[in-house]
Design brief:
binds guanosine-5'-diphosphate; alpha/beta; Four Helix Bundle (Hemerythrin (Met), subunit A); 443 residues; binds magnesium ion; single chain; Rossmann fold; eight-stranded mixed sheet; 434 Repressor (Amino-terminal Domain)
């Protein structure tokens, strides 16, 4: 898909840039705008989307801890999902469907696709040929019905579609009844009358409008028009396989009163999918499982209490909690950094289990006051000796822990004060493969 390729190119420009820079974000948004407008997404929607992305990308304090690509991909993903509408969940019980749409939009083909869809979910299906404009349309549907194993009903030579629908309703026993209607070159009064007449006898549970992706953002306007004739329950966007305007069609429908229900991705009955905006956008961005990743992040952050810690002051206790959380995440370092809590240097995280246990017993030997206010311990031999005795560690161990905490504290303050500092740090870390000996680091 054209749109996806361009979006991925825009995002890939950020690879290797570890730091968020206002100009980078602005450039990316320019690219995004170009991509979306060229795929026929409405200019107003694009501007609203860019504004949101820019705000979110530049605003958040925790941005400091993320790589630009990860962070912006996540934001672009979330905002695009919002732009592209909600995920559809079709009913899977006995019901009646009316299909409508203009000539050539893919109505008859979509009837067969829906039939195939429900058949594979164990429901019996009846297709009803009520396109009385073109006899060939009825033959086309009859053949498709045979192909997908659906029953087929019509009255040959009958000119009133509502009569065909009424007759089919009487005779059919199938669980899902799908009525194909005639189209027009354009939406007009006759079409409205015809659709209303069919709807009156059929009393459809679902009324799907079929539009072709290549009409782009006109799809939204069309949905609004048809909605006045017979209330739409969803829009089926066909020919997503061959159009560069899919983004326009989808976003315009999503921003109208209608929602996208299914998408057609080819000519065969099986080329059909329930519309899932997350999956769709994930594919566009080249991160097909991004939804799963987001879930994982949420779970991990809940489990490890990172969400809470992040906003808290750094204390001996919270430092230790972060250290444990970071350690637990291990190779999921990237995910951790997406949470904005990657301020703990690699070397600290790599401490052995033994050391962590020591830390824990030391902390347990501290008073409440000491845990909150580490400065009480600084160069205070009697307190240090008390903690060493209480925890069964050496005084050297205690001093080492305190010095690590102090460095962490200094770094945090620096990060907060100076964004550029982070840049220098990251350069240093990537150049040296980690910070060699925290003790030697000048902070
Ligand atoms: P109708 O006039 O609305 O009933 O449209 P048809 O169902 O007859 O489809 C018109 C043409 O579009 C046919 O040649 C179909 O094979 C083709 N078509 C329908 N849906 C799709 C789709 O999702 N992808 C592609 N590539 N072609 C489609
Ligand atoms: Mg047709």
């Amino acid at each position: 898909m054209d749109l996806g390729k361009k979006l991925r190119e825009a995002l890939s420009k950020l690879t290797g840039k570890p730091y968020v820079d206002e100009n980078d974000v602005k450039a990316l948004i320019k690219d995004l705008q170009r991509v979306l407008i060229s795929s026929d997404v409405n200019v107003k929607l694009v501007l609203a989307l860019s504004k949101k992305i820019e705000e979110r990308a530049l605003k958040a304090e925790k941005l400091q801890a993320l790589t630009l690509k990860e962070h912006v991909t996540k934001i672009v993903y979330e905002e695009l999902v919002a732009l592209m509408g909600t995920t559809y969940s079709p009913r899977l019980d006995k019901h009646k469907i009316l299909m409508c749409g203009l000539y050539g939009s893919g109505k008859t083909t979509s009837c067969a696709k829906l039939a195939h869809f429900y058949k594979t979910r164990g429901l019996s299906v009846a297709l009803v040929g009520a396109d009385t404009d073109r006899p060939a349309a009825q033959e086309q549907l009859e053949q498709l019905a045979k192909q997908v194993g659906a029953a087929y009903y019509t009255i040959k030579g009958e000119k009133v579609p509502a009569k065909i629908a009424a007759d089919a309703l009487k005779r059919s026993k199938e669980e899902v009844v799908i009525v194909d209607s005639a189209g027009r070159n354009a939406f007009d009064g006759h079409l409205v009358e015809e659709l209303r007449a069919i709807a009156e006898v059929l009393k459809p549970d679902e009324n799907y409008l079929v539009v072709s992706a290549d009409i782009g953002q006109i799809a939204g306007k069309q949905a609004a028009e048809f909605n006045t004739a017979v209330p739409l329950s969803g829009v089926i966007v066909t020919k997503m396989d061959g159009s560069g305007k899919g983004g326009g069609a989808l976003s315009s429908v999503a921003s109208s009163d209608s929602k996208i229900s299914f998408i057609g991705t080819g000519e065969k009955p099986s080329d059909f999918e329930i519309y899932n905006s997350e999956k769709f956008v994930g594919r566009l961005l080249g991160v097909p499982d991004i939804g799963a990743l987001m879930e994982k992040i949420k779970e991990i952050s809940k489990e490890s209490g990172i969400e809470k810690i992040e906003t808290e002051e750094l204390t001996i206790e919270s430092f230790y909690e972060q250290l444990k959380a970071a350690k637990k995440l291990g190779p999921l370092g990237n995910v951790f950094s997406m949470l904005g809590a990657a301020d703990i240097p690699k070397e600290m995280v790599q401490q052995s289990e033994d050391k962590l246990k020591k830390f824990e017993s030391m902390i347990n030997s501290m008073t409440k006051q000491e845990k909150k206010q580490a400065s009480l311990l600084k160069n205070n031999a009697s307190r240090i000796s008390r903690i060493a005795k209480g925890s069964g560690c050496s005084e050297k161990d205690v001093r080492e822990f305190l010095s690590q905490f102090e460095k962490m504290e200094k770094m945090m303050t620096m990060f907060k004060r100076d964004r550029g500092f982070r840049k220098k740090m990251e350069k240093m870390m990537s150049g040296m493969g980690g910070i060699p000996g925290m003790g030697k680091m000048k902070t």
